[in-house]
Design brief:
Elements (H helix, E strand, L loop, with lengths): L2 H29 L4 H22 L22 H16 L4 H9 L4 H29 L1 H21 L3 H29 L5 H7 L3
Helix pairs in contact: 1-5, 1-7, 4-5, 5-6, 5-7, 6-7
Length: 210
């Protein structure tokens, strides 16, 4: 399996978890007396349990061979192709709006907390639906083409958010944004490995903060 497909699979699982979590939270808030503050506190419990299980029940086996020397977390160790790519990604990251902006926009248009959770679930479901397909398309047409498609769809989507002020428009554009974002997510992360050597991969992935 290629790096694009592996990364796309990881993103599909991650987005699927976000869908499930959002739906559970929406159901609890809609059909119980639990408040939003209480829901946030309850959401911390699974994370704490996971940390405890990791700390108490998971033991790392002793390595059979000596561990390889780790690459330092330093911009200086990166090659020119990797630096250029991270600069481009950094500029795009500065220019783009966070996906939480979609929730803020929904709140501004009068959506309830439950509706916002459902909107977030729809967004992540849309991304999960196209993540695996995006990995396959990246293998066929190249990662750069998928990334440019995703970035172009991002610009178009946020322009449509402004041009379609209705609640229906919010939902439709959110789905459109999610579908195209899912196509490019795996390719973005896999491209890091293409530009970096084996020595600098630890640094390049750590410095990529998008």
């Amino acid at each position: 399996m290629s790096r694009s497909s592996c990364m796309a699979g990881d993103m599909a699982v991650s987005n699927g978890g976000a869908v499930g979590g959002s739906l559970i939270a929406a159901a609890v808030l809609a059909w119980s007396a639990v408040t939003l503050s209480q829901m946030i506190l309850l959401s911390a419990i699974p994370g704490l349990v996971a940390v405890l299980c990791l700390a108490i029940g998971v033991k790392e086996p002793a390595p059979a061979v000596a561990k390889p020397e780790l690459a330092p977390l330093s911009w200086a160790v990166l090659g020119q192709p990797m630096r250029r790519y991270l600069i481009v990604v950094g500029l795009f990251t500065v220019a783009r709006a966070s996906e939480t902006f979609i929730l803020l926009l929904g709140h501004e248009r009068g959506a309830s907390i439950v509706q916002l959770l459902l909107l977030w679930s729809v967004l992540n479901l849309s991304k999960a639906l196209t993540s695996t397909l995006g990995g396959r398309l990246a293998d066929r047409f190249g990662r750069g083409a998928l990334i440019l498609t995703g970035w172009g769809a991002f610009a178009l989507s946020f322009a449509l958010f402004a041009l379609l002020p209705s609640e229906l428009g919010l939902w439709l554009v959110t789905v459109l944004y999610g579908l195209f974002t899912g196509l490019g997510e795996g390719a973005e992360r896999a491209l890091i490995s293409d530009f970096s050597s084996a020595r600098e991969r630890g640094s390049s992935n750590a410095l990529d903060t998008r």
